[in-house]
């Protein structure tokens, strides 16, 4: 006898909260890209910077290197997020100081 209840795979998906879509997801994505950039620079510097290794090493082990780079990038992501938060706080403080300085100059002239 068929059931009237929808299967678990057919259930209605719950939409993500707005804060997740607007703030958290972009921060995670950007932090991953930045950490992958750092890991990628380090890996290619190690591979191509050494005269003992040939070009064939990279091409023959490309899959292993890519997997290791992804793992390293995910591990570095927390430090990148912390650095982005510090940079954001410093930028916000600089903008607040600039607005305060402009406000003071405008108030003195008026």
Account of the 3D structure:
This protein is mainly α and 110 residues long. The chain has one domain (18-109). 78% of the residues lie in helices and 0% in strands. The chain contains 3 helices and no strands. It has helices at residues 18-49, 55-60, 62-109. α1 (18-49) crosses α3. The longest helix is centred in the last third of the chain and has 48 residues, at 62-109. The chain crosses the membrane at residues 18-39, 80-99. Keywords: Membrane, Transmembrane, Transmembrane helix.
List its traits.
mainly alpha; 110 residues; single chain
Helix and strand arrangement:
Elements: H1 18-49, H2 55-60, H3 62-109
Helix pairs in contact: 1-3
Mean pLDDT: 83
- Quick one: biggest sheet? none
Strand runs, count: 0
Query: Cα-atom Rg, whole angstroms?
Result: 24 Å
The helical percent reads over 70%
Short note summarizing the structure:
Helices cover 78% and strands 0% of the residues. It has helices spanning 18-49, 55-60, 62-109.
